[in-house]
Amino acid sequence: MPVAHYENFPVASLLLPRRLRRPVEVIYWFARSADDFADEGDHPAAWRLAALDDYRRQLDAIEAGLPAADPAWRRLAAVIAAHQLPVQLLRDLLDAFAQDVVQPRYASFAELEQYCRRSANPVGRLLLQLFGHATEPNLRDSDAICTSLQLLNFCQDVALDWRMGRIYFPRDELLAAGVTEAQIAQGIADDRWRRLFEQQLDRALLLLRAGSGLPARLPGRMGLELRAIVAGGERIGARLAGTRGDVFRRRPVLSRFDWLLILLRAFQVLPAPRGARPALPATAR
Q1: What is the mean pLDDT of the segment spanning 71-99?
Q2: Domain residue spans in the chain?
Q3: What are the residues whose beta carbons fall under 8 Å from the beta carbon of 7, sequence distance 6 or more?
Q4: What is the pTM of this model?
Q5: What's domain 104-285's architecture?
Q6: Would you say the C-alpha torsion 260, 264, 266, 272 has a positive or negative sign?
Q7: Which of 51, 134, 255, 258 has the fewest CB atoms within 10 Å of its CB?
Q8: Is residue 121 within 8 Å of residue 146, measured between CB atoms?
């Protein structure tokens, strides 16, 4: 549930129905291990892309009904078959990881949103398929939540992403705000940066609220899990707002108290937070 490196994926969460914990673990293995090819170690780009291509070939073999030699891939094949998971969603994740290897900048939010469609949204869609609730309204709201969590991650990890050579704030909005890459490199959180940062944070939280009706439509422990995920996004959003954009010197993380609030929200002991930052104009969304 925290917003970082697929940690918002509810692996073995006690809030999940027991029968779904193992399938979620298997899908998480796929997503996390493939993501590591794009991000971890000192391998050159060609090696990373080749490793992701190997994952694509493994998916092709599963789709063709060919037996896998590796137990991990046999487990994934069994989960895909048992729950009729769309293999294209897994390919979308691989495409996003490959994009991380070759594309470190995004010209506009529309371009960044397309990246989120492949890097984040498949996770929610796979969960809904596991839950047996992959209806169009649910998928729409799930996409909003997942994109929101990804954007919150971008706000949280500006400094970490910069050290990896990446910027996930749209270039046209950087230019409009008068923020340069040199400023990000130096970690200068002046008024121009704060306005840009708040714009990104506002957008993420508006998307989170747009999808927040989804948990109420899911029964039992499934709805409970989704309420916890949304509450986790709300809490990290509040932490990010508290930095006033200076995520260079203090990367916000969730405390034990935050986790308590998240659980209380999930069990609906606490009401949803009221109020919102000012809405963005349509042209900036």
Answers
A1: 97
A2: 14-102, 104-285
A3: 1
A4: 0.90
A5: Orthogonal Bundle (1.10)
A6: negative
A7: 255
A8: yes
